């Protein structure tokens, strides 16, 4: 399948390009960067640090290459991803988006795109995090109503949004298992006199150094607690999962898909 990587110079884009270049089922046909960046016009392999030229360019105008691809992988910025989404719908191209920080109204655009294209949105493309979500479903259904639930997430100092998109998705999994809405349950941090309220999920975000990603969910009971956690040591697990998601999306009919659909187990 022919693949375009959006944001190939970013921490995720570089790894996605490197992994896609090694896969026998993927052929890279271009990269897309923001207007004005000094690597526009460079070979994609050189820009992404693959170690060899790939014979395709990095451009700043997606329209010039979009018809060459079967699927696009986008881990860029909120603004750029929304523009990519519009073009994907116009040209009927499959899209995998892992950018976070969208408003509920903006997320609705991604869901609606599924009526026209194979649209796979995932705040986290790790297969192990997908397994973690399944475990949370089981735990929430079994003990969610009799425990206090807290979510703690840690990312590098440069992450813009808080809580992370992954922690929001984990909270949604728990809320759904309890037949509730996360918007009615979420409490973001605490300060001063702040007793725990029933039927809430506490969120706590840490930002430090270059730590890739850590998510821990605690079900606190009396005299005991259950913790379900995922810790990444680098971003390669997410990039590999993103390529797996793209391979899946490229073969699908129009629809709104998730990592749970792509990374079956």
Automatic annotation (TrEMBL):
Subunit record text:
Homotetramer.
Q: Which Pfam families match?
A: DapB_C, DapB_N
- Quote the catalytic activity from the record: (S)-2,3,4,5-tetrahydrodipicolinate + NADP(+) + H2O = (2S,4S)-4-hydroxy-2,3,4,5-tetrahydrodipicolinate + NADPH + H(+); (S)-2,3,4,5-tetrahydrodipicolinate + NAD(+) + H2O = (2S,4S)-4-hydroxy-2,3,4,5-tetrahydrodipicolinate + NADH + H(+)
Query: Where do the Dihydrodipicolinate reductase N-terminal domain residues begin and end?
Result: 1-124
Q: What is this protein called?
A: 4-hydroxy-tetrahydrodipicolinate reductase
Which sites bind (S)-2,3,4,5-tetrahydrodipicolinate? 165-166
Family, as annotated: Belongs to the DapB family.
What are the protein's UniProt keywords? Answer: Amino-acid biosynthesis, Cytoplasm, Diaminopimelate biosynthesis, Lysine biosynthesis, NAD, NADP, Oxidoreductase
What does this gene product do?
A: Catalyzes the conversion of 4-hydroxy-tetrahydrodipicolinate (HTPA) to tetrahydrodipicolinate.
Residue span(s) of domain Dihydrodipicolinate reductase C-terminal: 129-263
- What is this enzyme's EC? 1.17.1.8
The molecular function GO annotations come to:
4-hydroxy-tetrahydrodipicolinate reductase
Report the pathway entry.
Amino-acid biosynthesis; L-lysine biosynthesis via DAP pathway; (S)-tetrahydrodipicolinate from L-aspartate: step 4/4
**Primary location recorded for the protein, binned into one broad class:** cytoplasm
Where is it localised? Answer: Cytoplasm
Name the encoding gene, please: dapB
- The active site consists of 155, 159
Q: Which residues bind NAD(+)?
A: 7-12, 98-100, 122-125
């Amino acid at each position: 399948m022919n693949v375009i990587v959006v944001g190939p110079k970013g921490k995720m884009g570089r790894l996605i390009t490197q992994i896609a270049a090694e896969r026998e089922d993927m052929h890279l046909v271009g990269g897309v960067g923001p207007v004005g960046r000094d690597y526009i016009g460079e070979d994609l392999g050189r820009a992404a640090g693959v170690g060899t030229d790939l014979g395709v360019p990095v451009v700043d105008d997606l329209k010039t290459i979009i018809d060459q691809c079967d699927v696009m992988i986008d881990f860029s910025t909120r603004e750029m991803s929304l523009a990519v989404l519009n073009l994907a719908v116009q040209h009927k191209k499959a899209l995998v988006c892992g950018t976070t920080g969208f408003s509920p109204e903006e997320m609705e655009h991604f869901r609606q795109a599924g009526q026209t294209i194979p649209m796979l949105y995932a705040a986290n493309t790790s297969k192990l995090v997908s397994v973690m979500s399944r475990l949370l479903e089981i735990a929430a259904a079994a003990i969610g109503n009799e425990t206090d639930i807290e979510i703690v997430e840690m990312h590098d100092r440069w992450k813009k949004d808080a809580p992370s998109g992954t922690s929001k998705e984990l909270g949604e999994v728990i809320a759904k298992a309890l037949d509730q809405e996360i918007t009615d349950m979420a409490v973001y941090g605490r300060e001063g006199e702040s007793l725990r309220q029933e039927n809430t999920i506490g969120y706590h975000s840490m930002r430090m150094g270059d730590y890739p990603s850590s998510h821990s969910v605690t079900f606190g009971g009396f005299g005991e607690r259950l913790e379900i956690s995922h810790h990444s040591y680098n971003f390669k697990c997410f990039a590999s999962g993103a390529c797996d998601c793209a391979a899946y999306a490229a073969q699908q009919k129009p629809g709104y898909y998730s990592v749970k659909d792509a990374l079956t187990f």
